[in-house]
C-alpha cells in the first residue's frame, strides 16, 4: 500500500500531464463552434487520465467497494498491461504520443501555410505533408494520443469516453468535408477518392 500511496496524490503530476496532453489542442484550428464539443470531451478524457494516474484511482476504489475486494493492478487501475508485458503499455503510449505529435504538428504546419493563412476565398486544397496520405491527420493524431493513454492506464472514465471521442471526431471530420466540397467542389471530391480519411490505405 505504501507504493500505491506514493504513486498517487501527486497533484503536480496531475497538472503537468493535463497541460502536456491538452496542449495539442493549440495546434488544432477551431473555425466553427461545432469543434468545441469534441475538444471539450478530449479535455475531459485527459483530466480523467491524469487524475486516475497521479491523483486518486477512483475507478479502483468504486469497483473495489462494489465487489468487496481490491482489484489487481492492471484491472481498471495501474499500468493496464503490467501482468502481460510489465511497463510495456507505457512505452506503447510514448510511441503513440510521438507519432501523434508528428501528425498533429505536420498537419498544423501544412494547413496553416496552405489554407488558414490565405485571404478569404483564396485557400487551396491541402495535399502536402501528411495530407498526401490522410485527409484528417490532426484528428488521427488526437485519437492516437488518446488511445495511447488508454493502453497505458485504462479506467472506467477512459473506456467510456474514448468511443465518444472517436464518434465525435468522425462526425466533425464529415461535417468539415461537406464544407470543403462546397468550397472546392470536384477538386476536393477527387482528393477524397484518392486519399483515406484517417489511416493510410485503410480508412
Model description:
- This protein is mainly α and 203 residues long.
- It is elongated and about 60 Å long.
- It has a single domain (2-194), classed as Four Helix Bundle (Hemerythrin (Met), subunit A) (Up-down Bundle), CATH 1.20.120.
- It is built from nine helices and no strands.
- Helix 3 runs parallel beside helix 7 and helix 8 packs across helix 9 (186-194).
- The chain has helices at residues 2-7, 11-22, 36-55, 58-67, 82-85, 88-116, 137-152, 156-184, 186-194.
For the termini, the CA-CA separation is 45 Å
The Cα radius of gyration reads: 19 Å
β content, as a range? under 5%
Number of domains: 1
Instruction: Tally the helices.
Output: 9
Q: SSE order, as H and E?
A: HHHHHHHHH
CATH topology: Four Helix Bundle (Hemerythrin (Met), subunit A)
Provide the helix percentage.
55-70%
The CATH architecture category equals: Up-down Bundle
Q: What features would you highlight for this structure?
A:
single chain; mainly alpha; Four Helix Bundle (Hemerythrin (Met), subunit A)
Short note summarizing the structure:
The protein is built from nine helices and no strands.
